[in-house]
Amino acid sequence: MKKHLMVAAGLAVLSTSAFATKARLQALGQDTSGSFFLDDTRSVFLNPAKLNTMNNYVVTEWGDADNAADSEANAHAEGGFFRKSGSMAYGLYFGNESNLNNTDRTTEDANFRSADNNIELFFAGDMGLQWGARVQYASSKDEPTGGIKKENDVLGLGLGIVKNNIEAYANLLLKDESKGATVANDAFEADMGLQVGGSYSMNDMTFYVDYDKNGYEHKNAGTKENEVEKTTMTIGVAKEREISKTAKMFMDLRFTNFKNEDSVAKTEVKTKSLPLTVGFETEATSWLTLRASVSQNVVIGETETKGTGKSTDTNTTNVNAGATLTFGKLMVDGVIGTTDASRTGTINSEKGSLATDNLMTRVAVHYWF
Fold first, then answer.
1. For the chain, which domains are there?
2. What is the pLDDT of residue 74?
3. Which tens digits make up the pLDDT trace of 214-273?
4. What is the pLDDT of residue 357?
5. pLDDT greater at residue 249 or residue 14
């Protein structure tokens, strides 16, 4: 499938610098789990069929293994490799834990074991129709003598296809269950998560749709305390344009409808938004690629809370910037940011500061072979 890539180095020949990491996606205002329209190494987590065209590299995302939920301020350590062999491609990846369930689980009871030591296996092939599959597995436990047994088990599956200018994917969370927290019969059990979507590209335009449904049940001492269901529908269109041989820009307009409902606590929150994102990527020198984006809700942007009312979402303007340092086949990505003046480690990348003593956050290194 021919797609226009947001590439900085080697735009004309689709060099390996076209593919990057979480830092690139964040700098371009995209979800770090994979963009709906920009080709990137993270795309294999959204659609594993992308492994057919993105392979033969090793990647490491720097961070702290103790961070259950990944963010710029507290990046989670992860990484792996992807390789092509004949007509097949395969990959092995460590540490790509789910922010969503780990955050919900910790919010309900911080004593639950989070999904940890996640392993993902990838397989892909091209039979005229490009296909791909991803299997996710994690299991851990804590059995102290005379104490509460705590355990967590995760199983997931991802499937995807690419045919000419059409893409489709389905990602399922088959199991994510934690038992034992403050007492033995505390439990956190995620619903079967389902994310399905697809895209259609025409010239420099991409039209896409994504439906995401997930939730969980939380039992406190054996009594159901929460039963949460979340659904998100996203419909969007993106346009990419080549400014020069070394630079491109894009515009991405998407409508998102989100609902969070707790049938036990009798709470309900709905949000609607229409964010417009404008971004660019350019080869500043042969060894330095720069990128940036700005996004903001336009016309639509409100939150409705049951029993409280509606309110317009405020402060939706978001600016990000990033860079890639290229040393042959070795590339270092990062979000352009700095710690605060007190050097406590608080990320300050969007507060108008630029300090060369601590220039990039969410650092990742990838090597292509």
1. 16-368 (2.40.160)
2. 77
3. 999 999 999 999 999 999 999 999 999 999 989 999 999 999 999 999 999 999 999 999
4. 59
5. 249
Three-state secondary structure along the chain?
CCCCCCCCCCCCCCCHHHCCCHHHHHHCCCCCCCCCCCCCCCHHHHCHHHHHCCCCEEEEECCCCCCCCCCCCCCCCEEEEEEEECCEEEEEEECCCCHHHHHHHHHHCCCCCCCCCCEEEEEEEECCCEEEEEEEEEEEEECCCCCCCEEEEEEEEEEEEEECCEEEEEEEEEEEEEECCCCCCCEEEECCEEEEEEEEEECCEEEEEEEEEEEEEEEECCEEEEEEEEEEEEEEEEEEEEEECCEEEEEEEEEEEEEEEECCCCEEEEEEEEEEEEEEEEEEECCEEEEEEEEEEEEEEEEEECCCEEEECCCCCEEEEEEEEEECCEEEEEEECCECCCCCCCECCCCCCCCCCCCEEEEEEEEEC
pTM for the complete prediction? 0.88
Summarize pLDDT for 21-38 with one digit per residue, the tens. 889 999 999 988 889 999
